[in-house]
């Protein structure tokens, strides 16, 4: 039985789906409004002003309406009590000769008194007069049988003047508000007189007051909203202008300035903003000039060094070719000289390449090539270095050729830098080169299992002349510019070059290039994760 009752209380599934759909629809409809409210300071200020002013106007209207209503009713009550007491005195003068309610002339006399009082404009239009014992009750004929409440009759019977607010249908036009005032006439047999005062004029006055208060409140709220919007606009407009100007400054339009109007706080803010922008522009201009001078210096020095280097190279080659004729010490010096000149030529070539990137003169010579074949050539060319370091280099690639529109020379340089770097840091462990493709991109991952990278070093490996461990012995004697140039080459292809690593777990470099020149890389076919490496199906090992 309890289970049946629990099932009857559960809402049906269709009702839950309907409620969920309605909630989602309400969320979609209200989301633009909420976003607009959050994004606009002026809208929030105006809305807050309207809400606060509406609450204050409502409270003020209720207080004023209540105070005026109470005042009007109290004034009418005082007047009605005074008029009723006068009517009671007038009726007492004419009823003083009756000593018993059984007198046959008493009813007619009471009727005459009631009619005279009702016809007199000084008194209430509806009057009831009866004996205290209730034996004889006569009212004005138009009064139509309206009776005061028992509580009011009990209070009047005690000899007090009492009042009551109630609604009666005395004229046949529907219930209307009345003020009933009852007074006791202390004569031989005792009488009670009740006067019915209509409150139509007071009700109309109260209604007119409430209407005026409502109209005035609405007008006041709207006026406050307009004032808040205007005041907020005066403050928000310079702020918005400053935001737009700062966005244009961030976009590189350093000549943008705010318009200064007047000499108030906002004008001083605009002046300070313009001064800051001017100083920023000057500082950026100085930095650009310094950077330009530095690039020009690097380019000029690199070019100027080529002539003496060529002379030194010829002399060194001559000494190197005849090294066997020298004594052992001179022979070793000649070999060292040849090695360092080779390294110096590589450094000079890379400096020239860096200067081309910095000056924006680097360009691509795109052709459709097999990326897998480029990787094989790189690994084959570094076979001697891998043998000296005791590192085995393997290649995993798809069975079919991976054709991409790239600059073969630059891609070969990127992969050579990545593979040689991996061999150098592999600590004798294998190096894995993985090639994969998607519908829009090709990726080459170079993974070693050597010393790895410390936290934060993955973002710095592409910095110029940066080395993770300067104290380590190097086989290749790199210049410190290889990875920096590789990153620039990848960007020139609209591709990406990323790195990750962990101490003792090795390092992973992922090069991703678009298959078609001019496109951009969105997702890489190989994820940048050490734990999992995406290997192409049916891979071949070299």
From TrEMBL:
The chain crosses the membrane at residues 45-68, 213-236. Its main location: membrane. Residues 233-285 form the HAMP domain. Signal peptide: none annotated. Pfam families: HAMP, HATPase_c, HisKA. Residues 300-517 form the Histidine kinase domain. The keyword RNA-binding does not apply. It catalyses: ATP + protein L-histidine = ADP + protein N-phospho-L-histidine. It is a multi-pass membrane protein. It comes from the Bacteria. It is found in: Cell membrane. It is an enzyme of class 2 (transferase). The keyword Cell membrane applies. GO terms for biological process: osmosensory signaling via phosphorelay pathway. One of its GO terms (cellular component) is plasma membrane. Keywords: ATP-binding, Cell membrane, Kinase, Membrane, Nucleotide-binding, Phosphoprotein, Transferase, Transmembrane, Transmembrane helix, Two-component regulatory system. Its EC number is 2.7.13.3. One of its GO terms (molecular function) is ATP binding. PANTHER family: SENSOR HISTIDINE KINASE GLRK, TWO-COMPONENT HISTIDINE KINASE. This is Sensor histidine kinase MtrB.
